[in-house]
Design goal:
Layout (H helix, E strand, L loop, with lengths): L22 H11 L8 H26 L11 E5 L1 H26 L6 H23 L4 E4 L15 E5 H11 L3 H21 L3 H18 L1 H21 L4 H6 L5 H27 L8 H10 L6 H10 L1 H27 L12 H5 L1 H8 L2
Parallel strand pairs: 1-3
Antiparallel strand pairs: 2-3
Helix pairs in contact: 1-3, 1-4, 2-6, 3-4, 3-7, 5-6, 6-10, 7-10, 10-13, 13-15
Protein name: Hydrolase
Keywords: Hydrolase
GO molecular function, one term: hydrolase activity
Amino acid sequence: MESTARDSSAPASSSPAQALINWDLAASTAARLASAGPTLNSAEIGEAVDSLRRLADASVPHVHEITGLEAARDLRDSSVLVVDRASWAKANTQSFAVMLKPAMDKMLESRRGNVSPAAASVSGAITGSQLGAVLAFLSSKVLGQYDPFAALAEGSKAPAAGRLLLVAPNIVAVERELNVTPDDFRLWVCLHEQTHRVQFAAAPWLRHHMLSEIDNLSGHLLGNVDSLMERASAAARSLKDRTATGSTPGRGAILDLLQNPEEKASLSHLTAVMSLLEGHANVVMDAVDASIVPSVRTIRQRFTDRGKDRGVMEKFIRSLLGLDAKMRQYSDGAKFVRAVVDVAGMEGFNRVWESADNLPTEPEIHDAKLWVDRMGL
């Protein structure tokens, strides 16, 4: 499927951190391994792209009405791109390069002189190939994604506030699988993704706050490579044991990599923020009725039920990558948002976008009253 994202920014490989992860190889590996998706002729491709662009625009007034966020009125500082799987993967290598650059540069500086250029090149190729394989798997699962970090990539031509990616082949594949009305399903998806776009517009400080927290966590994890490799091996064994016993892997495998309280606090904060963002977007999706999306009840039911049919291998990979933990974030965050709105209304909830101090902690995500009391609502 034709993409508008291929020329959206320069290659992510100009950073010295290329010695640790070959970003270009990651993108090309993902493009090679990812399937193209459903078969569409040129007319169908054009219709899908035009439809998604139109419905992305049409969803914005609904997001504004539901959230009450004035930021939804003007989103010209960011863009909407309809992409294929390979372009989604490439866009994510660019974002990963931005997010991990500070930690990787520090790591390279600490190991300067200890690793030969040839060894560094081999290491970068291995990690790049591995990342590409992960992105290839994910590229067939993601329907859309708001990327707030695109503009920070070196040589990027992305708008200052980032870009919204709608993965057309995946949206088409799922709507066919569920046998639902295409325009209804596409609008439903756009409502969720446009909400993320509005969140970062309403809280312009949020992008750099998240980068700082990601840098903090990745700096801890990459600070001691030898320790990290030992912990990663232990985490892999733990994941295998959990899978064999039928217990929940998910986030536990990540926690096995963390040792000191500061590392765990960083992960806890990022988990709370992601739960907030995903839960809020889900609440917006669920707030629409048949007057906006005529077949919304059917879509919700069939979309929820589709996860029950996943095979053993896919379930294992999803656990390894933490995708099931991410789905719990959707649920936990949505419960938090609804609980706050029930007490303080949407205006009271929207205080969360005012500053980083107003972001909920992980305990508050699970007990909204703690946040309500802290905010004095």
